[in-house]
Amino acid sequence: MARVEIRPVQPGKDANAFIRFPWTVYKGDPHWVPPLLHERREFFDPARNPYFELAEVRLWIALRDGVPVGTISAQVDKGYQEVERGTGFFGFFEFVDDVDIARSLLQTALDWLRSQGMVRAQGPFNFNTNHECGLLVDGFDSDPLVLMTWNAAYYPRVYEQIGLQKVKDLYAYWLDAGPLPDQIQRIADRVKERYPDYQLRPVDLKRYGDEVEIARKLYNDAWQDNWGFVKLTDKEFDKVAKGLRPMVDPRLCYVMEHVKPDGSREPVAFSLTLPDFNAVVKPMNGRIFPFGWIHYLLRKGKVDQIRVFTLGVARAHQAKPLGALLYQKTWEAGLAMKVKGAECSWVLEDNTRMRGAIEKLGGRIYKTYRIYGVDL
User: Fold this and answer.
1) What is the pTM of this model?
2) Which residues neighbour 262 within 8 Å (Cβ) at sequence distance 6 or greater?
């Protein structure tokens, strides 16, 4: 009988087999987008990822007769302890189609979380809500867009068989390119008329550091009441901003400013929409060298989908329908770029305000991601 061993993995140089394991699960999967190996190695390196300063992280790999058959992580996020004390996270939960292997991996992670004083576990979080998160449970007929997760179709079944239960659904909406809906056009026109002191401008890449500081303040203010929110530290925000920099297109990213009577301008909202660079990354199969750069050069100009990554208004200004101006501007930019459509993701199932706005734009839910939990 094959013997399964759950072995701890040291983040950093020892994580190579852990990082490469998904290639085993997704071999032949037409919709999987392999991550770039150099980015994954950096992400799991405590010396280069500031998240390791803010959380206790453990990694494990399952081996059957010495061959990798699964992975999992467990995290005690110190920031999240201020939000929901006693809740730990699991993530990077990958496994071959074997319930016993998945159960053994999960139990290992849960035992460690329990030893750290946790009373509940939630996931998958890679590593928290500021990173990729959620298990795809519906919408397996198309590729994930940039910075969204992907998993095998058998994962939801196995999750439920090993005792994990739904905590929250996250929706990805799809919008086909076409004329801006009349209702949104009317709202945007009315906002411009009633609030001429609110003005939009594109992100200035020449002042990227200043723009990052604006986004940092607005993000930590506008999203702080959202479920699962974990405030980003300055180091983490800088790390995320550096990673996003090659994907930021000023035609798709905007800052809204409130122009005061004295002429000063206060940033009160921002939106970040990303070209779907998964179309570029996918054929690289994880590597930039020796031939991945050829795919990058050939396909960089052929991105025809965009993802509305984040859009938020400072809490002091949320009573005004300012989001309509950001929707309108982003829609017009997408049409000018001749994209075939846009994904808005992710949106909490109980965020009725945001869902209502997207549905007025003609958006439809086309992928559902789920956060699971279990009491310890």
Assistant:
1) 0.93
2) none
CB 238 within 8 A of CB 48: no
Separation between Cα atoms, residue 189 and residue 195, nearest integer Å: 10
**What counts of helices (H) and strands (E) characterise the chain?**
12, 15
Q: For residues 187 and 180, what is the distance between their CA atoms, to the nearest angstrom?
A: 11
Phi-psi region of 28 (alpha: psi -120 to 50; beta: other; left: phi over 0): left
Range 270-277 average pLDDT: 93
**Cβ–Cβ < 8 Å for 333, 340:** no
Q: Return the structure tokens found at 354.
A: 């945001």
Mean pLDDT of the chain: 92
State mean pLDDT over 243-258.
92
Q: How far apart are CA 82 and CA 54, in angstroms?
A: 12
Domains of the chain: 4-170 (3.40.630.30), 175-370 (3.40.630.30)
Helix axes 323-336 and 182-194, enclosed angle (nearest 10)? 120
Q: How far apart are CA 131 and CA 139, in angstroms?
A: 20
